[in-house]
Amino acid sequence: MSVKIVALITSKSELSRDEFLRYWNVEHPQYVWKLPELERYVQNPAIEHRTEWAYDGMAELWFPSVAAVAQAFSSPEADAVREHEEEFIGNITWFLASESEIVPV
């Protein structure tokens, strides 16, 4: 069974939305895709709205197992991911999750 990381992200306060999205959408994937055993990576930027959201976006990273997550994030590739995140992420809160699709009955 696959597991995924769900990461809730806020931008550094000194960055504009466009600057944040450039770091995250354009630059960051090249670091993330180097993580060992990463199966899928999805970014969910918050939609601009009259309401100020608590988060600027959410990322989802799928791995084959919890052990694979641990291995990936103890790798040198993860060090590069974290180093790049320091340039544009103000705060990140994450958890491991399993995914259950709910269909109408």
Automatic annotation (TrEMBL):
EthD domain span: 12-89
NCBIfam families: EthD family reductase (TIGR02118)
Name of the featured protein: EthD family reductase
Segments passing through the bilayer: none
Superkingdom in the source lineage: Bacteria
Protein species of origin: Rhodococcus jostii
